[in-house]
Amino acid sequence: CSSTGTQVRNIMIPTGKNEEELWEMFKIVLNCIDEGDEIILDITHSFRYIPMLTFIVLIYARIVKKCAIKDIYYGAYEAAQNGDAPIYVLTPYVNLFDWIIAVERYLSTGDAERLRELTRSEATKINKEIRIDVPSNGELDRRLLFREPNALKLLAKSMHNFSEVMRTCRGPGITQVITNLKANIELVVES
Q: Residue 145, exposed/middle/buried by CB under 10 A (0-12, 13-18, 19+)?
């Protein structure tokens, strides 16, 4: 695209009729990604399984090639009205995936570091949204009425403290961090 300076390449891939072709597709897509790339994925045109395969490749590339998934789009032609098709932004699924991995890590190892990072990020977003003026119709986004971002930060910090005490076997501190963790869980539930 000369107007945006974006590089677009047409790469041929096999159809994926067997496991060998699926691995070949994985390699082809992965080899198209360079270290540190920022990726925008449009899954509008493909066989139905290709977005799933591509998402897995992109998650892998985020780790091994330090790339970023900036956006994922789907043009819903089947939902078109009067010739206009909506474009769905599916990027929140990347965030959901990050939360799933963070929760799994916490449950399997007790390591809350990734949960703390994600919670800080989410709390920062909520704080920014709260600062936005109330719309002229007087209605606020309902999720802002019941979520206290500072409570989320406190919960994330207490989860991290708990995992650190457990990881380093600091027995005398266990009672205090469990008490703090329980209090912060209750604070989030109440808010």
A: exposed
Residues 6 or more apart whose Cβ sits within 8 Å of residue 27: none
Sign (positive/negative) of CA torsion 135, 139, 140, 141? negative
What does residue 67 show for φ and ψ, rounded to 5 degrees?
-90, 170
Longest dimension (CA), the chain: 68
Q: How far apart are CA 101 and CA 94, in angstroms?
A: 11
Say if residues 53 and 23 touch (Cβ distance below 8 Å). Answer: no
What pLDDT digit, counting tens, does each position of 32-70 carry? 999 999 999 999 988 888 999 999 999 999 999 999 999
Beta bridge partners of 72: 41
Q: Distance between CA 115 and CA 99 in Å, rounded?
A: 7
Beta strands in the chain (DSSP E): 38-42, 68-75, 87-89
Q: What is the pLDDT of residue 133?
A: 47
Q: Given the DSSP bridges, would you call strands 87-89 and 68-75 parallel, antiparallel or unpaired?
A: antiparallel
